[in-house]
Design a protein that fits this description.
alpha/beta; Immunoglobulin-like; Rossmann fold; six-stranded parallel β-sheet
């Protein structure tokens, strides 16, 4: 028999209260993550037009967006678990509007496009002349014509003529800890953790900043990101990138999971990453690429396939080693040998310093950028 039974019962009660309160808070954060992007734009009424950052070149522009129809009037402002449950129920009943017609204008160019079955539209514009070189970001005017009139703009990043390369980076376990190898852990981190509680990979933000600035130290290179996450957490990732001063680049390339009452299970994303990267390489026809990923999933294999498909277009492949499995390391070493023969070195690194050392030797980042990486790694080490 414990010496202080009342205190023991009290302690158990406190633990149970804290446990359920933590679960409640986590569920609320999960709901806000799922509905955040749509609920911010819902103020427009029953019809919502969303745009995501686009990318472009001297010859083409590319932009993604979505048109939604809400199932019921907007709820009054509020917070809390019950309010958020009603919000997610309302938004799950919302439908992407298929075949909605939009007019898009950029400079003297004007075209009409329609949404797909999920309400997404994908704009590709062929430019008769390069956009003005006095800025990187350009506005595209978008006007929804049917089923009602809504006007908005989309932002597109176009590199200047002195750009040296394009960077494509995975997000999950490359830029931030996600745990994609563990599905339950991944879902928890995707939907329950907010931007402030997500953990950045040590040194990666500084490395990406150095690549963004490039050989001159004051450049602005396209930074394109791919992820297995749904578009619903776009806003969370934006806040995470801003919090850690990561160059957001043109767009966070996500995918549609199709989570609705009619489709409660995420759609499979097989080939999603490879297809997106191929589109980007074809888009930037005159620029080489640097690819960044991790060893936990199939980044090395996907990137190796890109190198084979587009010979001489990939400057290097940087893979963050997240495993420690000798068999996996050997598989990647074999891939590295094949890519080396094709002129695209693969660097498998457990420390961002190894990536930075290689990049500075190749002249892709400056010594000042390398020093900033070292300072950030030192500061993060002191915080542990």
């Amino acid at each position: 028999m414990p010496r202080y039974p009342e205190r023991s019962r009290c302690a158990r009660g406190s633990f149970i209260f804290v446990f359920f309160d933590t679960c409640r808070q986590g569920l609320e954060r999960a709901i806000r993550a799922v509905v955040g992007s749509a609920s911010r734009t819902a103020r427009r009424g029953k019809i919502v037009v969303q745009t995501y950052r686009g990318y472009g070149s001297a010859a083409h522009l590319f932009l993604i967006g979505r048109v939604l129809r809400e199932a019921s009037p907007e709820l009054p402002a509020g917070d809390g678990l019950w309010h958020n449950l009603k919000t997610i129920w309302r938004l799950m009943r919302a439908w992407g509007i298929a075949d909605a017609e939009l007019t898009v204008q950029f400079g003297d160019l004007e075209t009409t496009i329609k949404t797909d079955r999920d309400g997404y539209f994908r704009l590709t514009l062929d430019l008769p002349k390069p956009p003005p070189a006095d800025r990187h970001w350009h506005e595209v005017a978008i006007r929804l014509e049917t089923p009602m009139i809504i006007e908005t703009v989309g932002d597109v990043f176009v590199p200047r003529p002195d750009c040296s390369f394009v960077v494509i980076s995975d997000i999950d376990d490359t830029v931030m800890h996600t745990g994609v190898a563990n599905k339950l852990l991944m879902m928890w981190r995707l939907f329950i953790q907010g931007a402030e509680s997500r953990t950045a990979i040590p040194g990666m933000a500084s490395f990406l900043r150095a690549l963004y600035r490039g050989p001159s130290g004051d450049g602005a290179h396209p930074m394109l990101y791919v992820s297995r996450a749904p578009w619903a957490i776009y806003g969370v990732l934006e806040r995470f990138f801003k919090l850690h001063n990561i160059p957001v680049g043109p767009i966070l390339f996500l995918r549609e999971w199709g989570l609705t009452l009619q489709h409660p299970i995420p759609r499979r994303g097989k080939g999603h990453k490879r297809d997106l990267i191929c589109q980007m390489v074809e888009h930037y026809q005159t620029l080489p690429f640097i690819l960044i990923g991790d060893s936990g999933q199939r980044d090395p294999e996907v990137y190796a396939d890109i190198v084979k498909t587009f010979p001489k277009r990939v400057l290097a492949v940087y893979i963050r080693n997240v495993g420690g499995d000798p068999r996996r390391d050997q598989v990647i070493a074999d891939l590295a040998a094949k890519l080396e023969s094709l002129g695209s070195p693969l660097v498998l690194a457990s420390d961002i310093r190894d990536m930075a050392d290689h990049a500075v030797q190749q002249g892709w980042i400056t010594e000042e950028g390398q020093a900033a990486i070292e300072r950030d790694l030192g500061a993060q080490h002191q915080l542990r």
